[in-house]
């Protein structure tokens, strides 16, 4: 029986793709349209290019390229092989890069923003060791009560306390964010203990100011989260100042449990109305892109996970 057009007799079909160098030479020949140009770019002789392509054709039993004095023409089999070859070689190159990145040190300038309270309590103590471990990283850490625009300020990672994260952002949950109503034993002895949200109307409430004024405190009523209006003698944008005022017996505060957990444990502050406090918020690391696109982003997120580990 005669051979089909472009078929090569005595083809050896076992393991036709075991030689990646020949596949790369073939792909370059298709893209450049010239054996001599492939020879120049890959730093091999023209004879080697021709031999590699011929060996590949023999192993496949198909003519892949038709060569004349002016140009290379790609056969149907050659085009099919090229299409598959491009995808396979791209995937292999990416695999090599990914494996190499496992051992690469994160480098570059890292911009992180976090609320002042969380940054001071959880990030700052661990920051020096992180930068010692990654000497090729520099960091700009912004601790602020303001909600910074990640796009305009070119922020890499923002630590946010939120019910939910804006669409289009990548959000990685770091920890739950629990709040408490609390007051000092001295204050409760003088003014009584509030038992329900309505009782707060008769108490001096110490109000924090973040991005907005928190003069309406969220309260949980069964499965519904409601709000209660409060007022008092102090409004401040520092959780630390609110804590000190509460410890001094000035009034009732709604604050982060992280900030006062030692005070609650030691009895210098007392939690009140625990059944009414909603626990629907969380601490997130918010990014504009996935961490698998950057070693420095992956390192930053791992660092933040360590900073907020153990919070229940």
Automatic annotation (TrEMBL):
<comment type="similarity">
    <text>Belongs to the LysR transcriptional regulatory family.</text>
</comment>
<dbReference type="Pfam" id="PF03466">
    <property type="entry name" value="LysR_substrate"/>
</dbReference>
<dbReference type="InterPro" id="IPR036388">
    <property type="entry name" value="WH-like_DNA-bd_sf"/>
</dbReference>
<feature type="domain" description="HTH lysR-type">
    <location>
        <begin position="18"/>
        <end position="75"/>
    </location>
</feature>
<dbReference type="InterPro" id="IPR036390">
    <property type="entry name" value="WH_DNA-bd_sf"/>
</dbReference>
<keyword id="KW-0238">DNA-binding</keyword>
<dbReference type="InterPro" id="IPR058163">
    <property type="entry name" value="LysR-type_TF_proteobact-type"/>
</dbReference>
<keyword id="KW-0804">Transcription</keyword>
<dbReference type="Pfam" id="PF00126">
    <property type="entry name" value="HTH_1"/>
</dbReference>
<dbReference type="InterPro" id="IPR000847">
    <property type="entry name" value="LysR_HTH_N"/>
</dbReference>
<protein>
    <submittedName>
        <fullName>LysR substrate-binding domain-containing protein</fullName>
    </submittedName>
</protein>
<keyword id="KW-0805">Transcription regulation</keyword>
<dbReference type="InterPro" id="IPR005119">
    <property type="entry name" value="LysR_subst-bd"/>
</dbReference>
């Amino acid at each position: 029986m005669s051979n089909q057009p472009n078929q090569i007799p005595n083809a050896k079909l076992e393991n036709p793709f075991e030689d990646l160098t020949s596949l790369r030479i073939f792909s370059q020949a298709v893209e450049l349209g010239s054996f001599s140009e492939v020879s120049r770019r890959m730093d091999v002789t023209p004879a080697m290019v021709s031999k590699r392509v011929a060996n590949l054709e023999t192993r496949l039993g198909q003519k892949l390229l038709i060569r004349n004095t002016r140009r290379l023409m790609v056969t149907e089999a050659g085009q099919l092989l090229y299409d598959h070859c491009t995808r396979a070689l791209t995937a292999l190159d990416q695999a090599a890069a990914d494996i190499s990145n496992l051992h690469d040190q994160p480098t570059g300038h890292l911009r992180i923003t976090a609320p002042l309270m969380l940054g001071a309590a959880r990030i700052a103590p661990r920051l020096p060791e992180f930068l010692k471990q990654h000497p090729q990283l520099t960091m700009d850490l912004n601790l602020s009560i303001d909600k910074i625009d990640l796009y305009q300020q070119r922020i890499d990672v923002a630590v946010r306390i939120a019910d939910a994260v804006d669409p289009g952002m990548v959000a990685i949950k770091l920890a739950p964010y629990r709040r408490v109503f609390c007051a000092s034993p001295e204050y409760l002895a003088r003014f009584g203990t509030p038992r329900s949200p309505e009782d707060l109307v008769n108490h001096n409430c110490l109000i924090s100011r973040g991005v907005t004024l928190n003069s309406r405190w969220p309260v949980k009523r069964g499965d519904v989260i409601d709000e209660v209006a409060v007022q008092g003698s102090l409004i401040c944008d520092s959780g630390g100042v609110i804590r000190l005022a509460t410890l001094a017996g000035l009034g009732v505060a709604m604050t982060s449990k992280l900030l006062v957990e030692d005070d609650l444990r030691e009895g210098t502050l007392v939690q009140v109305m625990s059944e009414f406090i909603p626990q629907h918020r969380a601490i997130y690391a918010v990014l504009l892109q996935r961490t698998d696109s950057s070693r420095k982003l992956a390192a930053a997120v791992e660092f933040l996970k360590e900073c907020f580990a153990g919070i229940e």
